[in-house]
Amino acid sequence: MSVVKQKTDQAVQILKELDIDLWLTYIRKTSEVHDPALYFLLEDRWMTWQTAILISNKGHKFVICGRYDAANVEASGIYDKVISYDQSIKDDLLSVLDEIKPKTIAINYSFDNIAADGMTHGMWLRLNKMLEDTEYKDSLISSENLLAALRGRKTELELELVKKAVDISELGHKKVSETAKIGVSEEDIEKMLLQFTEDQGLTVSYPPLVHVGPDTQIGHGKPSPDVKIGKGNLISVDYGVFYEGYASDLQRMNYILQDNEDIPPVEVRRAFETCFKAISTGAEKLKPGVLGWEVDYVARKVITDAGYDEFMHALGHQIGRNVHDGGCLLGPKWEKYGQSVMYPVEENQCFTLELHVYVPNHGYCSIEENVVVTKDGCKFLSDRQMELTLLKL
Amino acid sequence: MSVVKQKTDQAVQILKELDIDLWLTYIRKTSEVHDPALYFLLEDRWMTWQTAILISNKGHKFVICGRYDAANVEASGIYDKVISYDQSIKDDLLSVLDEIKPKTIAINYSFDNIAADGMTHGMWLRLNKMLEDTEYKDSLISSENLLAALRGRKTELELELVKKAVDISELGHKKVSETAKIGVSEEDIEKMLLQFTEDQGLTVSYPPLVHVGPDTQIGHGKPSPDVKIGKGNLISVDYGVFYEGYASDLQRMNYILQDNEDIPPVEVRRAFETCFKAISTGAEKLKPGVLGWEVDYVARKVITDAGYDEFMHALGHQIGRNVHDGGCLLGPKWEKYGQSVMYPVEENQCFTLELHVYVPNHGYCSIEENVVVTKDGCKFLSDRQMELTLLKL
Known about the structure:
Shape of chain A: elongated
Helix content of chain A: 25-40%
Oligomer: homodimer
Number of helices of chain A: 9
Order of helices and strands of chain A: HEEEHEHEHEHHHEEEEEEHHEEEEEE
Largest interface: A-B, 62 and 62 residues
CATH superfamily of the largest domain in chain A: Creatinase/methionine aminopeptidase superfamily
Mean pLDDT of chain A: 95
Number of strands of chain A: 18
CATH class of the largest domain in chain A: Alpha Beta
């Protein structure tokens, strides 16, 4: 059974659970603006004209689309009814609504859940105009809770795909340790990872981030051709791939020993151990029912209690059809994160656990692991980095 | 000078011309939902947190973005000021607005222009909430006219890229004629084109469409492994590529001669000639100032006057950063096309001219050319298909 078939079946169940009558995804020209909900609703081909995808809590699965898009949707075998039109979607949409008679219609917009905010404002205006003289005009609600559950609760097939993505990402990280040499630049490492990914027939889930030594600039910046590996450097690499559409996102650390060193200096070891402990502390807290911010809080406290500067991002985001999947976020209660950190954690959600500290004269020390939430805790999908990888070059 | 630098400069000029004070593009997590306006505002790296990109008619070019995204934006050298934040974009955004003091703020939403409708409804709600107690709360207008002009009016550099995309697409079409054999399936042709594209280091601008013989299903359907080339078949292929982000979109026709034929039967020749004449008629009409629907009308009339069924799509869409670029559309006045067919044509816009008719027992006959609007007419970017390519297999 395809992922899309599984997810549309799961959507019916979640609609029942949330007591929502209908989920309506209303889109156009998906090559221009792509609603992320479509990952769970359509196989890969693009839709050209205005399209309505309707799934009800009674099990209806209908699509209304332009004439030339209909064949693909029919061929997928997922929808019971595919209605095609030439000039306007309105009449067909209204008559399907009259068949389903929903009291509540969930629409893909959200203040905080980015993955549930795929409807453009223009399409919102269009939909409201179509419904203005109907009994459905006040029925629209946000699909954010539906999509948080649908994206978060991975099926077994989805978990297998995430695990494959994690495994391949780990192979890429091993190649970083193997190819690191004095004088190799951040950009060289990035290129190697991009080539490795292409050789696997895959794409990266995010442009690889490479930070070498104390003078690099932390963040989402492009790896530099001028920042090169030297002795005493920490090398931090953030690299993940998409495997059949599912993402991994891992950070691994290498340390380049000085000539006179057999182990890293105490400040480097302390940094790694503190990051490691913070991730362990977060992982121990992570289980169904705990709120996103609570997990962030305990891990963040390990870092600040040890006297390091706070990391200015969330401890963990979900991974799935996107490297930053929406819904529950393991982050602090900052305005920009909004309600996403107030969601309770659920079983079968996949999260990153990630943080970093800065070590003067050596660079950034960062770790990022991938975990899946189990019935009463969490399980690491990644082979945890237990200690710094030491390189004598 | 990069395309993005040119387009941000051009945006300032268009803002002046349209008497709009400020263009505000407000986005988040561009890997999840990608506002198509970003093609003209940012180099390729993704933005993770909420970001505001501001261009004013006085020439201000500012970005407000999350801390970890700032380095890339700065490195592009396009923006005068890059302001980074950690917890909330609000204070920085309001103080930049107070610096610019706009009376009108163009926002990326549109009822009809898909390429100008990149803002999600959730971001619309967020922006309005931020502005609710300020003097800017009633200043928001649609950026659709700005984006129609910006996307439509190609710079010389953009025209070069479109032309390259057209040239490569023509090479792909030549390969179709070379590799066509009895028994080769629609899917085989699709695969050949995908491989050819990959060999060029490019991507397709749209999944190739292949229609073989009378029993295929017209539209955006996936090419079939079961529909195979036979004698007397028309082979219609729709194939384009992206070259450095710019699209081509061409349809070419092959006809497989029967054993006893030296030329195609009269009904096949008549179909091709009618399509050819309809495109010529549209091209003759196409020049600055004419309205989109007027060009469609004259070409459509050639088809219906000849007794064929009307093609149920627009005669021509723009090409550029997307294979279906927004703004002026050469289409009929159907509800779904809305205002897009009422725009006047402008110099340096690139359009497709495309249509098809059905020939019983032989298949679909379709032609699609790519043209650029000149000062007083239009010029073909593609090497026009003047006659059916005849194959004796």
